[in-house]
Amino acid sequence: MSDRKTLQTEKISGHSGASPGFGMQRDFEVCKLVDTTTCIGCKACEVACVEWNDMPFGATTFDNTYQTMPETRWNFWNLIKFNEHQREDGTIQWLMRKDQCMHCADPGCLAACPADGAIVKYTNGIVDFNQENCIGCEFCVSGCPFNIPRFNPGTKKVYKCTLCSDRVGQGLEPACIKACPTGCLKFGSKDDMKFIANERARQLKENFGMEKAGVYDPQSIGGTHVIYVLHDATDPERYGGLPKNPTIPWSYTVWKWLFKPVLGTFALFGAVGVLLHYVAVGPRRPQPEPPEKEAANGNGD
Amino acid sequence: MGTAIERFDEKARRTFDSIGRTEVYKGELLRHPVYTRVLHWMVALFFFLALFSGFGIYLPWLFRWFTPVFGGGPLSRQMHPWFGVGFVFFFFLQVLNWLAPMAWTTADTKWMRGIGKIVGGKEKLDPPDTGFFNAGQKVQFWEIVGGCLAYLITGIILWAGARSFGATAVAISYVLHDLSALVMLGGIFIHIYLSTIGEPGTFQAMTRGAVSEAWAWTFHPAWYKKVTGRDPRQAYEKARQQQSGTAPKQS
Predict the structure, then answer these.
(1) B121 and A284: CB-CB below 8 Å?
(2) What CATH code would you report for A30-248?
């Protein structure tokens, strides 16, 4: 795998810095790094996502922001969310965050899914939906802490960002990474991306006076395979739909893996109980019961 | 309102009696009319369809072999709510049908206190004030009424999904829907047992609609008294004496 020649870009004309995705390690867990401090909101990643995944361009929805639409859709997996945050001194901070599947190390969608093989997590960290196995129950929507899976009423299946598992499997970077013109999107091993992200956060603190700058890699779900550099990591909610401590609902963890089988077994004890009653106590018959021959002769009761 | 329900039930019973038949032979009493029996078996049909189509979704790693029976996972998921709707619909009609005989009385409270003796086989005859339904039957009935409400509310939330009701509502409904199913699953074993081998002579009440008089004075003495006008204990004693041959045979 590592010595395979791919159509990976090594150099790009008129492009600053290293070409996106070049020289990355793919033997380890992969990771997408989104640096919200250098995102310019150009939406090239949105277009690249729609193009690569061969989805038709749908009508956009104007909601008085620069956002293409209020939420991602079943055929629009990658959305730049524009949020205005008022600082304490009254000035406005314009935040742009690329919203897509976070590819959690502990995926809530996978925990919630009742269909055999509809959701898989690869060893490289990518969480993928196999629509041919999806039964369309939408439990994944409820299990996801980031509100990512989207139901298609036409096919009755759920869709989301695949982290371009088809491209990554062939040694390419995801389409959004390739399209990013500012280098705000990076792709590589989780370790490398964490290193770059922490370096960037340090740079923001030391050179730009952003005291609260930091990396968003929530450990409450074991970390994610999409991480953010945020201007203010203490308040990720201000970026729109980024919970500080994302969690999987109790229903899909303890209830599903412990209480369901245990209580199900208890319910089956109902069958054992009546069987034991039949054996030990015996049936209740309409009275008087027809006397057995010997008993009838033995006593006149 | 009560009279409207009664009128509806009476009309339904008349209609079904004109279509179906209930043979009550000598020494038997009419237990359930055609309407009640049809409702019961429609409830049972949809209950088991919903139960089995739900198994594959409840514990997929154990019960996924159930889904091909319903045409695969996607079709199971599509049909399961409709089976549930059928179950709730027919049980709702049964609730209207049985509203009066299922009302809780002081005799039921007494019956419940003595349930140990009955289950333990110490008491062969039910207490003399046991009516058309005993307290155990009423508990199961009202449990299913409550369970149906839980099913209906949580089921609609799960059906429409997190898109309509939000992730939290779905996560909570997921647990409550399971709980309701588990209670009913445990209850159905007891129900089937007592109506077949547990209390012989009971099953025909829901098939032919008629039961023997002995069955009636044994398990539902107050009801026996109401429909025949005879005393259940005297009838029992008479039958007992006839059987043991200590009393002169009566023609």
Answers:
(1) yes
(2) 3.30.70.20
